[in-house]
Amino acid sequence: MNDIAEDEITGYVAEVRLALGGLPEATREELLDDLPEHLAEVLAEGNGTLVERLGAPSAYAAELLAAAGLATESPKDMSPWVRPDEVRERVLRWLRAVDVRVGPVLGYERASEFLVLLRPAWWVLRGYLVAMVLAHLLDGGSGPVGLLPRIGDSVLVALALLAGCVVASIWFGRRELPDKPWPRYALWSGTAVLVLLALAGFAGADSSSRSTPYMDATYSGGSPYDSVQDVFVYDSQGRLVEDALLYDQNGAPLRLGSQYCVDQRTGDSWTSWQRGYPHCPQVNPFRSPPPSPTDDVTPSPDSSVPASAAVPAASASERPAGGAVSPSASVSAPAPARSSAPSPSASPSR
Amino acid sequence: MPCVDTTQLLKGVLDLAVLAVLREGDGYGYDILRRLRAAGLQDVGDASVYGTLRRLFANGFLNTYVVPSDEGPHRKYYALNAAGRAELERNGKTWRGFASIMDDLLRDRGTA
């Protein structure tokens, strides 16, 4: 018997002894008494390792206990160790119970029957997730993650990558599961990583889309700056500052309004080429009265103000004209006006 | 699961089978296992045989003795004692009675 076989036997015996931990020591050692010798015989058969030939040490211990009529003491519960195969067994039993319990709610005998129907949908989703991960890796993670697997800015490339990954995923899904355990483990762990990445990406996208209203005042609903179309900056002297550039506390340029100008009075509209604010200096809301009428965009209300201010004088002179006074009054009027005595024209109105 | 589970059947008669094997001659654990398998009980588990031997010994049906081995550790041999022989005879009768009932049952129904 070589050293490797001896190590294997010692290890197997130790694990069986551990699984029998709930028994009194004398009983346990009695059960284990001829185990090393037996294991040596089994190994000498040359039919594989002890675990392959006899099963897991815990299973061997359980069978030994059952056959010896000692199983009622349930040493498994008394053992302080929870073995991985026990955990797996317990989880699987629980999953089977859930499977049967949830199935009728969905209208199936078992929930797994329904989930099997969803497999093609998972393949499509998997293709999308792979495309997103690939794009993120190839793009160097430069920009924020959008909804398309973009490499650079091309939508076409993004759509081609997406279509390729989805088709590949469906093709892969329709194949049989690999027989060997390692490719299967690789597939499962790859899927687990993909799901984790997807959850992380989803959480990130969710939080960034929720914080958008605070980052960009023009984008969201409910912001007081929704109706802002242009910005006018004045210096301390009240003079309009042209081509002003606005930045936030992070140095990011503030983009408010649009380059599209509309003159409310004339209805004219045009596109502004101003780089800074205001985009449309012509529609300055606090424009001081124009110093000269040469300004071709003089607002019409401004010009109407002096006209209405003149109305009382005009009406004063018109009323007598509408009255019983003869036209001679208007003829005589200029004369007293020059002598700054309007009484003759005013008196008939009373 | 088939209606007749050989593993379950084996559990019920393993005591009897071990006693019967030991009637032919004393043996150590691995030797007894090999003889059971050679007799046709291919599915018998290693641990089941050792557990059964331990229980039969604890119930007083077997004697043990140790034989030093040349190449490996000592070997624990099991041997039927008087109580074991009586147990074998009693259980053997029970089994033959049971087996003949089953035989009749199956023959009457035309399935055997």
Automatic annotation (TrEMBL), chain A:
It holds the Pfam family HAAS. Residues 281-350 are annotated as: Disordered. This is Uncharacterized membrane protein. Residues 294-350 have a biased composition (Low complexity). Keywords: Membrane, Transmembrane, Transmembrane helix. The chain crosses the membrane at residues 116-135, 155-173, 185-205.
TrEMBL record, chain B:
Residues 18-90 form the Transcription regulator PadR N-terminal domain. Pfam families: PadR. InterPro entries: Metal_resp_DNA-bind_regulator, Tscrpt_reg_PadR_N, WH-like_DNA-bd_sf, WH_DNA-bd_sf. It comes from the Bacteria. This is Transcriptional regulator, PadR family.
